[in-house]
Amino acid sequence: MEKTCADEFPLTVDSSEKQGVVCIFGTGDFGKSLGLKMLQCGYSVVFGSRNPQVSSLLPRGAEVLCYSEAASRSDVIVLAVHREHYDFLAELADSLKGRVLIDVSNNQKMNQYPESNAEYLAQLVPGAHVVKAFNTISAWALQSGTLDASRQVFVCGNDSKAKDRVMDIARTLGLTPLDQGSLVAAKEIENYPLQLFPMWRFPFYLSSGLCVFFFVYCAIREVIYPYVTGKTDSTYRLVVSIPNRVFPITALTLLALVYLPGILAAILQLYRGTKYRRFPNWLDHWMLCRKQLGLVALGFAFLHAIYTLVIPIRYYVRWRLRNATITQALTNKDSPFSSSTAWLSDSYLALGILGFFLFLLLGITSLPSVSNMVNWREFRFVQVRTVVSQDICWISWRKHIPTTHFPTLKPSHKRTHNTIISDPVAGPQEQAAADRTLSIWLRQGPAGSKLRSLNLLMLAPPSL
């Protein structure tokens, strides 16, 4: 008999077409949601319960019977109860002989038992055809119509005909079944819903380690060393300045680590003289985590962009700009415009923006929903050309960082009329009093006529 290809099956079936009877053991949340979905797809549903009389809130149109009576109504039985309550099945071993028994159970933790629940069920009811399925689909996904959740259903079992029937049911419900082989794969399928970001652990640990290392290094250079040598308090740099230095370094390092394992793998294949030998476990795991490393690097690039946007409103930056403006006005000297400096500054900003855009483009094309829409040549073109262009932009960006020179001003606590009164560590009230004194003196002094043409907002005390 010619076997029909899986791709030719429709994802959903008209609910007016009668699909048969399905028995569900268990009236919990998942059993109710699965029964409701089957009723909507044209199945007749019979629930099996320990106490049929007290079962409530079941889908309209479903019957509730005791286990033995419900099992006799269908040859496909969904077991939606926990493993601790499998004991009643031993009494129904004769009734379940030759029937398809679908195990949808999950455990509380990974590798909780020596064997999988499906294998234990096959030992408990040896005459039934046990199939593991639907354990990766939640009750919420079934109730929401599987539009906003994963539609993949992993199916495994020792009987091919039983698996085909379960996969037909999954397709009728609008799900996508994936055959995982024999019942030996049930343990892996049961552990799948319990995994917590298995492919993200290495990128998270690596990025955290890099952040801590670069942060400590910058803190020693910019905070601890100035305090030890000159008793200068620069602890305020720990909040914005140092993180904004750490984030781009970490992003570029992670981006380099995305493509480094591919180079190492190519060198290893050339050294071995063949590509048919397995890579070492550490290299294999590293290559599998490349997409996650790239997305984490993109996250650090976003943080760097956000931290850079807040630089103009920082108190330290406004303090330096205010003092530089006042110093130029008092000394009647201004800085001549430099076209080369303007070119370097604008080029620095343009290359940084372009590099961030290319980084964002690289991350978007790595998403499965986007990469599935392009062929291999298009994907490789975007990945390779984007990375090369991005590296050129960022190398040029780091090479041409402009240095803005401010006059060297030593903060003073003296409140005299001939001193620039500004202290980066002064309190709000103290700074406000100093600004008012300076404002009065400037209006009355010889430099007042020059400063009155400036933006007085620059002389206002900080509002942060």
From TrEMBL:
Subcellular location: Endosome membrane
Alphabetized Pfam families for the sequence: F420_oxidored, Ferric_reduct
Record-annotated Ferric oxidoreductase domain positions: 249-384
Obligatory cofactor(s): heme b; FAD
Family matches, as InterPro entries: Fe3_Rdtase_TM_dom, NAD(P)-bd_dom_sf, P5C_Rdtase_cat_N, STEAP_metalloreductase
Gene Ontology cellular component annotations, sorted alphabetically: endosome membrane
GO terms for MF: metal ion binding; oxidoreductase activity
Keyword Acetylation: no
Catalytic activity: 2 Fe(2+) + NADP(+) + H(+) = 2 Fe(3+) + NADPH; 2 Cu(+) + NADP(+) + H(+) = 2 Cu(2+) + NADPH
Keywords tagged on the record: Copper, Endosome, FAD, Flavoprotein, Heme, Ion transport, Iron, Iron transport, Membrane, Metal-binding, Oxidoreductase, Transmembrane, Transmembrane helix, Transport
Stretches assigned to coiled coil: none
Signal peptide: none
Gene Ontology biological-process annotations: iron ion transport
UniProt membrane topology term: Multi-pass membrane protein
Domain Pyrroline-5-carboxylate reductase catalytic N-terminal: 22-107
Transmembrane segments: 204-227, 247-271, 292-313, 348-370
Family assignment from sequence similarity: Belongs to the STEAP family.
Protein name: Ab1-219
Organism: Rattus norvegicus (Rat)
Upper lineage: Eukaryota, Metazoa, Chordata, Craniata, Vertebrata
